[in-house]
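Need Testis expressed 9's 3D structure for a figure. Predict it.
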Amino acid sequence: MPLTFQEEENSKLAAKIKELEEDRVRLQRTINIHQTQTEKQKALAEELARKCDDLQLQVSALNKEVETLTRSQKQAAFIHSTMEVRLNRAVEEAERLKSQLAKTKQMNKMHFEAAKLLSFAEEEFMKALDWGKS
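Structure prediction for Testis expressed 9:
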């Protein structure tokens, strides 16, 4: 028995509804998969943002440390330079005093020799006086 036009239309529409329902289920699964992936990507992005913030804090702390070390290095270089100047002055002063000491020793030696000669001359003079008395 042949189907009537309306039954045939109903059958076509039912098949179309079934096909659309299958498409809807398939699309819903795809949407769910995409939502899950989106949520995972959001979580990953948040984690990476936290890591980025942590790294920026570390970079900031390291920059401050570099600044402090640079300042300390400059201060140490200045102190070293000052000490070197003072050392050079002290060495020059020591050399000057050493030279002066050598001159003083020479003078003392000369005075000693002169005193010795004077003593010798005095003894000879005294002998000469004693000789004249005898």
